[in-house]
Write a structure and sequence with these properties.
By secondary structure, the chain is of the alpha+beta class. The protein has helices at residues 4-22, 66-70, 102-106, 108-119, 124-141, 165-175, 183-190, 227-237, 276-282, 287-305, 369-372, 381-400, 426-435, 450-462, 473-481; strands at 26-29, 39-42, 45-53, 56-64, 82-87, 193-201, 205-212, 215-222, 250-257, 262-269, 316-318, 327-329, 335-337, 344-347, 352-354. The chain folds into three domains: 1-100, CD59 (Ribbon), CATH 2.10.60.10; 145-270, Phosphorylase Kinase, domain 1, CATH 3.30.200; 276-481, Transferase(Phosphotransferase) domain 1 (Transferase(Phosphotransferase), domain 1, Orthogonal Bundle), CATH 1.10.510. It contains 15 helices and 15 strands. The longest helix has 20 residues, at 381-400.
């Protein structure tokens, strides 16, 4: 990915930028843009890429933004897996793009892995050794992962010498659009991940622990019938300037067709401690640990809710399904908010709310009163943020109960565990929350600890019946940060 062609490309980029700026609004073919008649518009370039997948060539066409073009990665071909071309006239990517040894690659379907290796010009002796190693590794792993997962060659050079996946994401985020890795790089990473074992299941599908070039990643595999959730979550995660230490780090999205069904992948950072729900179930927390967890959740939510104005700005986003199972605990005992498939974005210029076309609703146990009694004004974006704050108060209650007071710790429970069934209906929750106006109980013992006393007061402020009377995420964050000892709590 280095050498004379790269130098020539870097030298040509300023001229290309000038040419593109003279004719803003370049029209390109876009295979993923069904809602715009398979076209997209950009000030950057049109691009087409071809990737070898399971012995056959797969072509993708779309737009490259100007920041991505300047990042000097998007238009590079990968020597083993992909060939890519960028061009600068309307619909110029409507071309037939082939890998250099396409004939040999086509033979891979009939000739198996040896023909595929020959297609990429690997010496025959090396092929034999490579096949032996791959088959041995495949036999060991076959029982632990879906039969559709392939093991294409890893490309550690994608990140550059000595660079980690985190370094690659940081470089592309700071030098590019701030919205994460380019689509081509995402696909290259996704197709070189080796799945290890299942670490979770949900209504969307499964979460796997995977490896990319020796680094841990999490792979959320959606069922094909939940394509809208997959697409929406990938779209939200790639919002400009969304990346934050207390929001789950997105890496890649890819749809992988194995000929029988389509797997929808969402690749993110891997946090071995699991969800906050799992973490609190496993053990107790110290006062400092409780404050650290609470502050980091508030920090992530405040960043999500905040609008950043400017060319590289960020819209305000509401989560809509905040709960302990959708929050992950990092190695440093702080939290990262995850699962953004139901999130909504606010366009302050047009004053419009981008609500996903998704039949799913949030989790009933954590729904705000105005949602339960169908009184929420969905035309006002603040309503969605206020509903998040209500859910935040319930999450804080879960955390605080696991903090020992006088040597006594409450057992872990979900909010309203003593008032509704284990799988409550909307009506169950509405009766308790709206009609009886009940909330989780706050023990008197909390008054003996300053941090618990303040957190208890915040909970009451968060789950008020009137959404307008609730605190903002930023106010919650500032209040909790005042409880922190600098060496104990950083967020």
């Amino acid at each position: 990915m280095r050498g004379a062609p790269g130098s020539a490309l870097r030298a040509a980029l300023p001229l290309l930028g000038i040419a593109v700026s003279l004719c803003a609004g370049l029209q390109c073919v876009c295979q993923l843009c069904e809602h715009t008649n398979f076209t997209c518009q950009t000030e950057g370039a049109c691009w087409a890429s071809v990737m070898l997948t399971n012995g056959r060539e797969e072509v993708v066409k779309s737009c490259v933004s100007l920041p991505e073009l300047h990042a000097q990665v998007f238009c590079h071909s990968s020597k083993n897996i992909t060939k890519t071309e960028c061009c600068y006239t309307d619909f110029c990517n409507n071309i037939t793009l082939r890998l250099p040894l396409a004939a040999a690659a086509a033979a891979a379907a009939a000739g198996g892995r040896a023909a595929l290796a020959a297609a990429v010009a690997v010496p025959l002796a090396a092929v034999a050794l490579l096949l032996a190693a791959l088959l041995a590794r495949s036999a060991r792993a076959r029982r632990r992962r879906p039969p559709s997962v392939e093991e294409p060659p890893c490309e550690p050079g994608l990140a550059g010498p000595g660079k980690t996946l985190r370094d690659l994401i940081h470089d592309m985020t700071t030098s590019g659009s701030g919205s994460g890795l380019p689509l081509l790089v995402q696909r290259t990473i996704a197709r070189t991940i080796v799945l290890q074992e299942i670490v979770g299941k949900g209504r969307f599908g499964e979460v796997w622990h995977g490896k990319w070039c020796g680094e841990d990643v999490a792979v959320k595999i959606f069922s094909s019938r939940d394509e809208r959730s997959w697409f929406r979550e990938a779209e939200i995660y790639q919002t400009v300037m969304l990346r934050h230490e207390n929001i789950l780090g997105f890496i890649a999205a890819d749809n992988k067709d194995n000929g029988t069904w389509t797997q929808l992948w969402l690749v993110s950072e891997y946090h071995e401690q699991g969800s906050l729900f799992d973490y609190l179930n496993r053990g107790t927390v110290t006062v400092e640990g409780m404050v650290r967890l609470a502050l980091s959740v508030a920090s992530g939510l405040a960043h999500l809710h905040m609008e950043i104005v400017g060319t590289q700005g960020k819209p305000a986003i509401a989560h809509r399904d905040l709960k302990s199972k959708n929050i992950l605990v990092k190695r440093n005992e702080t939290c990262a908010i995850a699962d953004l498939g139901l999130a909504v974005k606010h366009d302050s210029v047009l004053n419009t709310i981008d609500i996903p076309q998704n039949p799913r609703v949030g989790t009933r146990r954590y729904m705000a009163p105005e949602i339960l009694d169908d009184a929420m004004n969905t035309n006002i974006f603040e309503s969605f943020k206020r509903a998040d704050i209500y859910s935040l108060g319930l999450v804080y209650w879960e955390i605080a109960r696991r903090c020992p007071i006088g040597g006594v710790t409450e057992e872990y429970q979900l909010p309203y565990y003593d008032l509704v069934p284990s799988d409550p209906s909307i009506e169950d929750m509405r009766r308790v929350v709206c009609e009886q106006k009940l909330r989780p109980s706050i023990p008197n013992q909390w008054q003996s600890c300053e941090a618990l006393r303040v957190l208890g007061r915040l909970m009451r402020e968060c789950w008020r019946a009137s959404g307008a009377a609730r605190l903002t995420a930023l106010r919650v964050k500032k209040t909790i940060s005042q409880l922190c000892v600098p060496e104990d709590c950083k967020a």
